[in-house]
Specification:
This protein has 355 residues and is an alpha+beta fold. It contains four helices and eight strands. Strands 1, 2, 3, 4, 5, 6, 7 and 8 form an eight-stranded antiparallel β-sheet that branches. A hairpin with a 7-residue loop joins β1 and β2. α1 packs antiparallel against α3. Pfam families: WH1. InterPro entries: Homer (IPR045027), Homer_EVH1 (IPR044100), PH-like_dom_sf (IPR011993), WH1/EVH1_dom (IPR000697).
């Protein structure tokens, strides 16, 4: 059947910077498909991701690998064979948790496959040893049964024919056993070499794990430092927001001052225009001053005439007062005469009544 996908998701792929071993380098410009594959022929598991025509992840999972969650949506694992660290950024925490669970399942399956392979190697080794031990007595038995050529010639009977047939079968079995033994020895040697390679890879992986643990400690320290720096930057951002608010207020104030300045400039322009007509106004002012002086002179003359007229009026009023006094005296005298005349009339009327 070959390799078949057993789980697929989407994530942003990153690789550790091979130079600094600290910074992440994006391996994809956008979220790409990341899949677990199972190879039934080799009984192995791989994580594969392809961006267009470029393979950006080809990591065979071993029992020594560990998937680490470094944040709520980011995880990573080290691949000693590829000599790199892969990082995946997911869109949600659920996707990260599912991928981590699948990684653990595949890791356990790879461990079971390795243990089964080791058991098979041990079984083949024991079987090869047993076959090698059986080879010598079988050969001796065949020689004793067959005998020499002279005995064959002198004893040709049905039993000898049966023995000869069995001898042929035994020879074929021995030859087949020898062939199988050589084959098992070759496979055993191959398995031993593979086992040695696996041991070397395991030791290298262990060394890489220690190295990655140290790097993880350094990354955690850098993460703490970055968090502190982020807190400082947030405080600076808050101050910047306050400064921005102050700047906006200052901008409003500046606009107001600019408006006032424009008004003042307009007033200054008006004053300049008025200053241009100042000589004309000065001439008019001098003319008005001359007229005013003339008017003052005339006013002085009129005041003098008014004073003369006031004196005449005073004299006339005084005369009028005198005339009023005399007229009052005359009126008093007239009233007296009228009273006397009235009394005289009354006397005459009494005399007429008496007569």
């Amino acid at each position: 059947m070959g390799e078949q996908p057993i789980y697929t998701t989407r994530a942003h792929v990153f690789q550790i910077d091979p130079t600094t071993k600290k910074n992440w380098v994006p391996a994809s410009k956008q979220a790409v498909t990341v899949s677990y594959f199972y190879d039934s022929t080799r009984n192995s598991y791989r994580i594969i991701s392809v961006d267009g025509s470029k393979v950006i992840i080809n990591s065979t999972i071993t029992p020594n690998m560990t998937f680490t969650k470094t944040s709520q949506k980011f995880g990573q694992w080290a691949d000693s064979r590829a000599n790199t660290v892969f990082g995946l950024g997911f869109a949600s925490e659920q996707q990260l948790a599912k991928f981590s669970e699948k990684f653990q399942e595949v890791k356990e399956a790879a461990k079971l496959a390795r243990d089964k392979s080791q058991d098979t190697v041990e079984t083949l080794s024991n079987h090869s040893q047993q076959e090698s031990g059986r080879e010598t007595p079988t050969t001796n038995q065949a020689s004793s049964i067959n005998g020499t050529d002279d005995e064959k010639i002198s004893h040709v009977d049905p039993e000898a024919a049966v023995l000869q047939t069995e001898n042929e079968h035994l020879k074929s079995a021995v030859e087949q056993s020898n062939t199988n033994a050589k084959k098992w020895e070759t496979e055993l040697q191959t398995l031993r070499e593979n086992n040695a390679r696996l041991v070397d890879a395991l030791q290298e992986s262990s060394a890489n794990v220690e190295s990655w643990k140290k790097q993880l400690g350094v990354c955690k320290e850098e993460s703490d430092a970055l968090r502190e720096k982020i807190a400082e930057l947030e405080a600076q951002c808050n101050e910047a927001d306050q400064d921005k608010q102050k700047n906006s207020q200052m901008s409003v104030r500046v606009q107001e001052l600019q408006t006032e300045l424009q008004e003042k400039e307009q007033e200054l322009e008006n004053l300049r225009k008025q200053a241009e007509i100042i000589p004309q106004l000065m001439a008019e002012c001098e003319s008005i001053t001359a007229k005013l002086q003339t008017a003052e002179t005339r006013n002085k003359e009129l005041e003098d005439r008014i004073e003369g007229l006031q004196l005449d009026i005073d004299e006339s009023q005084q005369k009028q007062g005198n005339m009023k006094g005399e007229l009052k005296k005359f009126m008093d005298m007239l009233d007296g005469k009228i009273d006397e005349l009235h009394e005289f009339r009354q006397g005459l009327s009494k005399l007429g009544v008496d007569n």
